[in-house]
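Tutorial, part two.
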Amino acid sequence: MAAIVNRHLEDFGTAPQISPQDCPEIAAMGFKTVVNNRPDGEGGLEQPPNAEIEAAAKAAGLNYAYLPVISGQITEQQARDFAHLLATAPRPLLAFCRSGARSQNLYQLAAMVAAADAASRQ
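Running the prediction step on this input gives:
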């Protein structure tokens, strides 16, 4: 696989841009869900379209979600949407973007939103 997977936790990892051909290996690594955080077209013609990655992920038996975020412009709603995915999607979950950093930042914001929501319910 061309992409390097960083396992931050036992059930969560990030990666730079993946290709459709990477999906069987991602499944073989034990991941159950792939989340694409990169908007289509951001990387020009070299970036595989979301639809192609989604089809390959599903063919490899992976769950798939598309939650595109713009680097440096993550919204609270996107953090909430990612928190929902983290709470409901089969794990381990692999999120990817151009470098993996945006997905890691989104994870951290989602954790903060989830913690704040839990504290407000107490």
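The longest helix spans residues 101-121. In part three we will examine how such features are distributed along the chain.
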